[in-house]
Amino acid sequence: MQKRLVLDQQQIAITLKRICYQLIENHDDFDNTVILGLQPRGTILMEKIVKLLEEISGDKVPFGALDATFHRDDFRRRDFPLKANETKIDFLVEGKKVILIDDVLYKGRSVRAAMDAMIAFGRPQKVELLVLVDRKLTRDYPIMPDYCGIRVNTLDSQYVVVEWAGKGQEQDAIWITEKVKN
């Protein structure tokens, strides 16, 4: 299988800091802003972003984990049932600015489903999207990130793989790989 490195550990660290400074510019002290990581992979990125934000700004940042499994448009169309993850949100989003976080933006289906799932916690004032990787030429829905680590051109025959140190990998890295053909 062919693999091409997109960002290494040092580049990812720089990218995450840049994104955090952009968030601080736009959200002042996070009094009226909450962060929701999309389960499962968006929560890993969310934890890193929240930790950095709190280190840089000194402000406490409210965050939670959102599962959108039952809101997906392909939930009942699969050959095998999707396994739901836990939603952990101990606050209302009513009237808040919400930053949705996911690792890779591909077709836009997960983000659309997350917005449906989020409404159960109130009507937000504003919703923004933060992704580490934007696969910019593959969208099925008109969804664009407000904050993006890197934009890549990929084919449908490729995957974007985000690896995190401590989550089964030695180092943080982002790869583009070819899908295995059957």
TrEMBL record:
Alphabetical list of Pfam families matching this protein: Pribosyltran
Record-linked InterPro entries: PRTase-like, PRTase_dom, PyrR_bifunctional
GO molecular function annotation: glycosyltransferase activity
Phosphoribosyltransferase domain mapped to chain residues: 6-156
The entry's keywords: Glycosyltransferase, Transferase
Superkingdom of the organism of origin: Bacteria
NCBIfam families: PRK05205.1-5
Stored PANTHER family: BIFUNCTIONAL PROTEIN PYRR
Protein name in the entry: Pyrimidine operon attenuation protein/uracil phosphoribosyltransferase
Organism of derivation: Algoriphagus boseongensis
Taxonomic lineage: Bacteria, Pseudomonadati, Bacteroidota, Cytophagia, Cytophagales
